[in-house]
Amino acid sequence: MGKKLIRFDWAVKKLLRNKANFVVLEGFLSELLFDNIKIDRILESEGNQETDDDKYNRVDILTQNSKNELVIIEIQNTYEIDYFHRMAYGSSKALAEHLSLGQAYSQIKKVISINVVYFDLGQGKDYVYKGKTTFEGLHEKDTLQLSIQQKQTFAKKEVSDIFPEYYIIKVNQFNDIAKDTLDEWIYFLKNSEVKDEFKAKGLAEAKEVLDLMRLDKEQQYGYNRYLDYLHLKASEALSLQAEAEEKIRKDENHKKAVEIAKNAIIEGPKNEFISKITGLSVEQVEQLRNEKE
User: Fold this and answer.
1) Burial of 90 (0-12, 13-18, 19+ CB in 10 A)
2) Which residues lie below 8 Å from residue 154, measured CB to CB, with a gap of 6+?
3) pTM of the shown model
4) Based on CB atoms within 10 Å of each CB, which residue in 14, 113, 154, 155 is the most buried?
5) Distance between CA 175 and CA 232 in Å, rounded?
6) C-alpha span between 172 and 127 (Å, rounded)
7) CB–CB of 93/99 below 8 Å?
8) pLDDT digits (tens, 9 = 90+) for 254-274
C-alpha cells in the first residue's frame, strides 16, 4: 500500500509547471500516448493563466512538446453537461492563438486535448476514449487519405494527423485494477496513491514531488482549502441530484394522479371525491372534467 499523495489536479495547477517537475507530466503523457514525450515548455493562453478568480474545478495546462505539438491537459471535477463543447472550444482556441497573422495554414500545430473527468461524461462502458477526425466516403465507404505530395510536404501520414486529437479519461469508471502502466496512472489519478509495485513512467518521481510532507505552510493551507472546496462541490452535486430525483418522483406521481382522475371522471363521482383519492385540487379535477367533456 503506497502513501497518500497530493491530488494530481491541484499539483498541475501549483507544482508541475516547474520545469524541474516536467518528468511527472512527461511520464503521464508518455503512458497515455504510447510515445516518449518530452515537454519543451509551458505555454500561456487565456485558460492557462493563474489569476485570483481561477475556478478551482477547472485546471488547464497547455504545453508544447519536442515534436512542436500543443498538448492541453484539462481536469474537471464537477459535472458539466456541455463539457464536449468546451473540449472543442479549447482545442480551436489553442489552434488560433498559436497561428500568427500572415502564417500559412500549413503552419498550424497539432493539438492533443487530454481531458481527465471525475464524472460520467456521456454514455459508454470504457474509462479511456480517444477521438480523431477522419473522412469517410458516402458512396464508396473509403477513408480519405493524404496525397503523396501532402505527406512529403507536411510530414504527416494521415489526414487525422493534422486535426486535433482528443483523449477522455473517465476516472470514476476505473475499477482500481491496474492491468498495465496506463492503468497505474489512472489508479493514481483516482486514488492519489502510487503502489510500491507500480512501474509506469513518472510515477516514481510523482511519489517524491507530490509528497504532502514537502509542502510549506502556505501550500498546505491552499491545498486544504482546495480539498474543502471539492467536498463542498460534492455535497452540492448530491443535493442537486436529490432535488432532481424528487422532482421526477413528483412529476410521475402527478401523472398517475391525473390518469386516475380521468378514469374516475368517466364513472361520474363528484370532484371533491376525486380530489380526495388523487391528491389533486378540486380546481384541477374540474379542469380535467371540462377537458373530457
Assistant:
1) buried
2) 106, 146, 162
3) 0.77
4) 113
5) 25
6) 8
7) no
8) 788 778 778 777 777 777 877
